[in-house]
Amino acid sequence: FQFNLMVIGRSGLGKSTLINTLFASNLMQSSARTSPEQPLPQTMEIEPKSCLIEENNVRLELTCIDTPGFGDVLDNEKCWDPIIKYIKDQHSTYLRSELTAKRPLFTPDTRVHACLYFIQPTGKGLRSLDILVLRKLCEVVNVIPVIGKADALTSDEKRALKTRIREELNFHRLRCYPYDLETHDEDDRKSNALIRDMLPFAVVGSTKEYTVDGTTFLGRKTRWGTLNIEDPEHSEFIYLRDFLTRTHLQDLIDTTSQIHYETFRCRQLNA
Amino acid sequence: FQFNLMVIGRSGLGKSTLINTLFASNLMQSSARTSPEQPLPQTMEIEPKSCLIEENNVRLELTCIDTPGFGDVLDNEKCWDPIIKYIKDQHSTYLRSELTAKRPLFTPDTRVHACLYFIQPTGKGLRSLDILVLRKLCEVVNVIPVIGKADALTSDEKRALKTRIREELNFHRLRCYPYDLETHDEDDRKSNALIRDMLPFAVVGSTKEYTVDGTTFLGRKTRWGTLNIEDPEHSEFIYLRDFLTRTHLQDLIDTTSQIHYETFRCRQLNA
Ligand SMILES: Nc1nc2c(ncn2[C@@H]2O[C@H](COP(=O)(O)OP(=O)(O)O)[C@@H](O)[C@H]2O)c(=O)[nH]1
Ligand SMILES: Nc1nc2c(ncn2[C@@H]2O[C@H](COP(=O)(O)OP(=O)(O)O)[C@@H](O)[C@H]2O)c(=O)[nH]1
């Protein structure tokens, strides 16, 4: 099993913390500069990092693709070009190995199966940069919108922001995962509608443990109370975890190869 | 008494909420677009809004200058130019009325006495845009750095971020308010050093009231506890309020006219 997950969003939105919490590993190091002398990021890089995970007796080779510096430079015109190029390059590597005469038995799959796009919890919806980048991403990869650091929102603000973002995704015709196909029956359509109602996932991540009233859990300790990331009232973390590692893992891989890769392959062979 | 306060920072950092809480009024309307159809801000505007405030038997004519759209457009090169131009224009209006032969008894003062600069609570310190804008602002106005929405930080993260920002302000030689003058004695220097140790103020604002255990207070209700903005453990709001409306109000006005305005005047008359 090979699963490749790309993570995109401004620095400081809790991306590395969330990935390390989701896959209970130390896969992503936070991209923080540790001292003022270090120069600020002038360009964006693309850094894949891999590790092996055992989840319910399934061996999963996970690769996380981080994009440090995204949206943090002064002029963000065309900052999405290197990301789209990376995704297309993986498709063309796969295509090349598919077309070679003497094909290896097992083709390594580096295609990006899902992309977590982090939205700021400011309560103001999508920014102009978000809309432009999402427009490009939705054409080439399965995009899953996520609100980072959702503990900065009260229950009402969270509900209002999720509705607002769903409206904006519809208005700008940004087609996120899951897709409705002609081959889908009534049940498939219903389960897709349920997922769409949960998007964007408002998550809180943490790698620190706290013990309150005898129960130990991962959370964040504030001066007015301690938050438990696995409590669905506090954070939609467990919904995102189940979605990514259990219920939709296989479908994300299949959709990538049946929809995104086939569209790419058609265009290349017709060109 | 005339006091002009400029507020700069990306949208959604809680600027309007904080100003309305500081001055117990509805002075600033949040710049949120209410529906997806409304266009995203393409440029930054500068909007002064005035109101009359009674604080401890002193009538204060307060003007708040908002900068909706700051840092939210795609290409932020030179986005600070309109702000610096606005500040200098107020100085030159004041200079012109000072130089006219028949001077009115009372010259209206629209010079900017203080500028609250909002930093994002991401834990990553100053971004490249922050450093460039602060460099320009510190030359023409009293700048007071503030961390917005500080409830997104735990106590340790808050302490680490404040230290980190102070280090970066020193490293980039950004001179915020208060200034050390030759005329100052030992006591003045000590009181300035105390203020510098409190900068940046990590504040949480709110205009909603909650009642917990019989006491009513302004706060934010989360699923794991209710925060009281006037509790110094939860938010440095009361320190910023005392600093701005009581202890340093007069000094901010004096420093503007003795340092920033005189520097401007000298340059203009020598030019
Ligand atoms: N309030 C809040 N802070 C978080 C959360 N997740 C991480 N953090 C803190 O935010 C800071 C930056 O997180 P990091 O994961 O490095 O962000 P990244 O730059 O997006 O990878 C760290 O100090 C974390 O402790 C969260 O869900 N809520
Ligand atoms: N977590 C948190 N949210 C806040 C705070 N102050 C305001 N908000 C919320 O953030 C949203 C945007 O605030 P607003 O004042 O309009 O931000 P502005 O665009 O910077 O003026 C609103 O939904 C507020 O309820 C705060 O201190 N902490």
TrEMBL record, chains A, B:
Keyword Oxidoreductase: no
GO molecular function, one term: GTP binding
Subcellular location: Bud neck
A GO cellular-component term linked to this record: mating projection septin ring
Record's keyword terms, sorted: Cell cycle, Cell division, GTP-binding, Nucleotide-binding
One example of a Gene Ontology biological process annotation: mitotic cytokinesis
Main location, first listed in the record: other
Domain of life of the organism encoding this protein: Eukaryota
Domain Septin-type G: 1-271
Family: Belongs to the TRAFAC class TrmE-Era-EngA-EngB-Septin-like GTPase superfamily. Septin GTPase family.
Descriptive protein name: Cell division control protein 10
The organism of origin for this protein: Tortispora caseinolytica NRRL Y-17796
Source taxonomy: Eukaryota, Fungi, Dikarya, Ascomycota, Saccharomycotina
Full-sequence portion shown in this chain: 29 to 299 of 332
